[in-house]
C-alpha cells in the first residue's frame, strides 16, 4: 500500500526564518514530500544517491526501501523483517552493502539488489550484548560499531570475524572515521569523544576530546579542511580542527533543544543541523569563528565588586547580601546579574541566539552592528535525524512524530556568489 505522500503541488510549505534581527537567509526550504506510514519510531533514513529512493530503519523491526514511482508517490520496494528493533544503519552504494544495528546487540549485513527490489541476507554479527547505537563501514572491509554495552567493536566484512575491540568508560553513542589519518572518533553519553588510531587489525587510543556536557548525538567531517563537527544534547555544535595537536575548537550555538543531526555540504561550504526545537540551521563556514571566552572565577563581581553568595566574609564586612555569579559570553568576566543584564547575538563567536553579555561588551556589539552567519528555518516537526543529498539538493529529516520529510533546498545549498577564503585554510 502506498505511503501517505504530500507532494509540492498538493501543499508546498516554505519554512519561516527565525534568526535574529538583521539576518537575511540565502534560501528557503520547500516541503516536497513526506512519508507517514509508520506506527513506531523511525530511527534513521537516508537518501539513495542518484536514485529517487530512501532506505530507513524503524522500531517496528523492518528495513524498508522506498522508491519514487512515476505518479510521484513513494512505494515500499523492499520490506525486510528482522529479529529486533532497528536502531542504526550504514549503506555503501558502490558495493550495495547495507548493515543494520539492532537493539538486541546483533548487526545484520545485507546485499541490496541493483534495482532496489530485493535484499539478500549475508550474515549476522553477534557484536554486542546490548543496544547497537552506531555502525560504520570503512576502508578495507572493516565494520565499526559501538553500543550500550560500552564496547567498541571492529569486525571484518570479508570473513565475518571479529578483529579486535575496546572497552569504553561509558556507552558509545556515535561514530566517525577519517580515512586519511585512520582516526576513529567515538562520541559517548558523557559528552566526550574518544580518538583512536586504526592500524591493520589493532587499535591505539590517542586522546579524549572534552567540550560537550551531554550525550554526543552525531558527528560529521569536512575532509578537505580536516574539521570534525560534533553535535550534542547540550544544544551545541563543536568544530574540532584535526590539523592541530590539541584539536583546537570553536562552538556553534543556534538551537534551543537537543541537536540530533548534522551534515556538512562540501559544495556550498555549509553545515546543516537539526534538532528537537523543530528547526534546521544553515551555518556559513566560509568564515572562521573565534573560540569561546574562558570564564573567569572570582569571589566578587569584576565590575561593581558585589560579593557572590559564597563570599561570606565580604558579605559580613559590607553588610550586604551576596548574588549569583554570571559570565559574559564575549569577554568571560564573572559578573553579578545587574552588570550582565544585556542579551545579544555574537555571530563571530558562533552565538546565533541571544546570550548574556556585560555592559561594555553590549556597547561594543551595538557599535559593530553584528551580521548573522547562519539562517534558521522552520521544520514543523522535532527532527531526530538528518540526511542531505547535495547532487539533488534534497534534505531528508525524520521526526519524533514518526514522519519522514523531504525538502527541496536548491536555493539554500547554492554556493555564495563570493566565497570568502576560510581562515582555517590559512592556519
Plain-language structure description:
By secondary structure, the chain is mostly beta strands. It is built from four helices and 32 strands. The strands form nine sheets. The chain has a four-stranded antiparallel sheet with strand order 1-32-31-30. It is globular and about 80 Å long. It starts with 7 loop residues before the first helix and ends with a helix. The model is unreliable at 1-27 and 417-427 (pLDDT under 50).
List the helices and strands and how they pair.
Blueprint: H1 8-11, E1 30-35, E2 42-48, E3 53-58, E4 62-68, E5 74-81, E6 86-92, E7 97-102, E8 107-112, E9 119-125, E10 132-138, E11 142-147, E12 151-156, E13 162-167, E14 172-178, E15 183-188, E16 192-199, E17 202-210, E18 216-222, E19 227-232, E20 236-241, E21 249-253, E22 259-265, E23 270-275, E24 279-284, H2 312-318, E25 326-327, E26 334-335, E27 342-346, E28 351-357, H3 359-368, E29 374-378, E30 383-389, E31 394-399, E32 404-408, H4 423-426
Antiparallel strand pairs: 1-32, 2-3, 3-4, 4-5, 6-7, 7-8, 8-9, 10-11, 11-12, 12-13, 14-15, 15-16, 16-17, 18-19, 19-20, 20-21, 22-23, 23-24, 24-29, 25-26, 27-28, 30-31, 31-32
Q: Sheet with the most strands? A: 4 strands, antiparallel
Q: Name the helicity range.
A: under 10%
> What quaternary form is this?
single chain
Silhouette: globular
- What is the average per-residue confidence, as pLDDT, rounded to a whole number? 87
* Spatial strand sequence of the major β-sheet: 1-32-31-30
Low-pLDDT residue spans: 1-27, 417-427
Number of helices: 4
Structural class: mainly beta
| Radius of gyration, in angstroms, nearest whole number | 23 Å
Distance between the termini: 55 Å
Q: State which percent range the strand residues make up.
A: over 45%
Number of strands: 32
